[in-house]
Design brief:
The protein folds into two domains: about 190 residues, TIM Barrel (Alpha-Beta Barrel), CATH 3.20.20.80; about 55 residues, Chitinase A, domain 3 (Roll), CATH 3.10.50.10. The protein contains seven helices and 14 strands. The strands form two sheets. Strands 1-2-4-5-6-7-8-14 form an eight-stranded parallel beta barrel, surrounded by four helices. A five-stranded antiparallel β-sheet has the order 10-9-13-12-11, with helices on one face. The mean pLDDT is about 95.
Length: about 260
């Protein structure tokens, strides 16, 4: 039995053509919630069909409560474009009633919906996106806890490529973000020995800075993301999403998740 989750690339219109060449299915972030509410589309003419329809609350302006009409508008676009589901890329919790209404409408028509954990109570039956990046504890235990809380059959994975420099002792769970170029330069400059953490399911190295303070650098590469996807599959997770710009140079090594 193939337990590998299917990896979707979350992509804006600007990066879509490049992402489509990879052969991965896309979560098309071509839409946002406009005042009304209404569905605002990207300025470019949309000709693509298939994948997942992704809707953001970027630049959202409150106003209007015709959530049923909005749900039908989404359904119409979904049907025209052949989308297989809807992903809400939404942060604003004031949109809970909208998410609840639209989710119920779409699920009644057998359309899968994906939401962040902040909306799981109002989006009954939707898949809950669990971020893959952790800086402490255990990745497997994190998924186990999520399965206990949301239901294993309702989980989806949000693949977040971690690349962070932490000063010890830890003062933040995020650390200083490093670009791929910064990470490579730092590793080379420090002559770092890289190790794999089974608990975090990520690679790391340590070094001391000019003041003598110890640092812990945690990062993902193709092998660790593949390991995270494989473990997610063992929990029965069937869908995973990753921002295309974050992992585009790693896709050749992740082709088994197309």
């Amino acid at each position: 039995m193939d337990n590998k989750p299917k990896l979707f690339l979350t992509v804006s219109q600007a990066h879509f053509n490049d992402a489509a060449l990879s052969g991965f299915s896309c979560a098309c972030l071509f839409y946002r919630i406009a005042k009304g509410p209404a569905l605002a589309r990207s300025n470019t003419i949309i000709t693509h069909r298939g994948g997942i329809m992704a809707i953001s609350d970027k630049n959202f302006e409150p106003g209007g409560t015709e959530y049923g009409l909005f749900a039908r508008e989404i359904m119409g676009e979904l049907t025209r474009r052949g989308y297989a589901g809807v992903l809400f890329d939404i942060e604003d919790e004031s949109l809970s009633e909208l998410v609840s209404t639209v989710t119920a409408y779409l699920l009644s028509r057998q359309v899968p919906v994906f939401v962040s954990p902040r909306f799981f109570r109002v989006a009954k039956g939707a898949f809950v996106l669990i971020p893959s990046a952790i800086s402490g504890g255990s990745y497997e235990q994190m998924l186990r806890d999520a399965a206990d809380k949301y239901g294993a059959e309702q989980l989806a994975l949000e693949v977040v490529r971690i690349s962070s420099d932490f000063t010890l002792p830890f003062t933040s769970s995020d650390g200083k973000k490093l670009t791929t170029a910064e990470l490579m330069a730092l590793s080379e400059k420090k002559g770092a020995s890289v190790f794999f953490s089974r608990e975090l399911c990520a690679k790391y190295f340590t070094y001391g800075d000019s003041t003598g303070s110890p640092h812990f650098v945690l990062f993902d590469d193709a092998s660790t993301l593949s390991a995270k996807l494989q473990i997610a599959g063992s929990f029965g997770i069937k869908h995973a999403f990753a921002l295309y710009p974050e992992i585009k140079e790693l896709l050749g090594s992740l082709s088994e998740y197309k």
